[in-house]
């Protein structure tokens, strides 16, 4: 059993960032790279040559290269559930039979999108995509980031079981021109199934004669979808080996592919494939997902950092932090090793964040002067998304660059309340432009970084048993068959009598 040996990592004692820059003119080149339209700059982190060497040894010890190859080969890397994690096969990189299957399912998805466009299911102007977690966050991010000028369909993504969510969405749409897409890997998720029932009732009440005829399913469990009432021809399956939070590349990406067009969806997959190749083929010290994982683990294991802040300096990426919260925290928020032994080291830090410059006026005080050391990640786009005459974009990016510089440099002051300690790390990603290809590469970067973190932590990133207990208790409470503690019993009594 592989237990990560943190001895050399914890013994690292890098100099302050400004000194690291002064001592090594090659630092920027060593810790930055351009991959798939994204400039990665990790030079304002405390990674040093010695740190990279120590992590490379840890990567060797934990078998990172072999595990990465196993991931791409379609081996059962999700050991607790005995299955593969084949999101890269959706992008054309994986076991040949898995890639062939993904291609065939994509062709089916494309055909249904064409049929919908040709009004084979009746007129469609609106799409209500119902799903939660990995069945909603990815499509939501894609459409919000890339769909500003898309006018094919109006799309609403509904996830919460709170009736307000679906009520808001449905109130905007005409039932006679709405398609309901039920997105659920398992097709058993309570929130999604309740929202789906409500959407069906809304179609019926809206005078749609064959409401089931306006419903499609995006799922890895077609039998359940058929049982629910979806016609087999309107089911877009995806493989069981594609995890929920890694599923936007599969038919779960339907609303994005429909709204943005198939060409855009293909470009998204191609961008991700470029990052797949980078991750699979590049040596550790130049491999950006791996280097980023090294920095993550340095701060978590040696720096005592319990959180990481992600700030998108672009409105189009405002949903990125919530997308990453699921990807990183559901994957690596574990306290046992892949072999089921308790871990004696911190696993995933809390991912949190927001958008710049808003966040500067809300939470950056703590980043600059608080007692917590928080590694910060800044993401900006060179080509502006806006068409404003005034130079909003220049200000936006200059603010992002200034924050990274200020966090690192700090500033002394005779009055301690006005002093900035500095030496606070930032990692920066600068995208040439925000298009499907670059966004695909960015998301794939985060997936591989999460995987590299997991391998070095010795944990399985592909299960999520931790989400089950609360769901089970809610279901049992619904049936009236759950004995709760006095506090919970009182809360239930207050709410429902
Ligand atoms: O796609 P499904 O099966 O409805 O699951 C939705 C989400 O629920 C979870 O299982 C967590 O509760 C996620 O992993 C998943 O993305």
Task: Tell me briefly what this model is.
With 497 residues, the chain is an alpha/beta fold. The protein is built from 19 helices and 11 strands. Strand 6, helix 10 and strand 7 form a beta-alpha-beta unit.
Provide a descriptive summary of the structure in words.
The chain has helices at residues 7-10, 17-23, 27-30, 49-61, 64-73, 96-117, 137-146, 163-171, 190-205, 222-228, 254-260, 262-281, 288-302, 320-332, 364-369, 392-409, 436-457, 468-478, 486-496, and strands at residues 32-35, 38-41, 126-130, 154-158, 178-183, 215-219, 235-237, 307-313, 350-355, 376-381, 426-431. The protein is α/β, with parallel strands linked by helices. It has 3 domains: 7-82 and 269-463, Rossmann fold, CATH 3.40.50; 95-260, Glucose-6-phosphate isomerase like protein, domain 1 (Rossmann fold, 3-Layer(aba) Sandwich); 467-496, no CATH class. The strands form 2 sheets. Strands 1-2-11-10-8-9 form a 6-stranded mixed beta sheet, sandwiched between helices. The structure holds 6-O-phosphono-beta-D-fructofuranose (F6P). Residues 132-135, 184-186, 189, 192, 244-245, 330, 464, 467 line the site of 6-O-phosphono-beta-D-fructofuranose.
Provide tags for this entry.
single chain, 497 residues, alpha/beta, Rossmann fold, 19 helices, globular, binds 6-O-phosphono-beta-D-fructofuranose
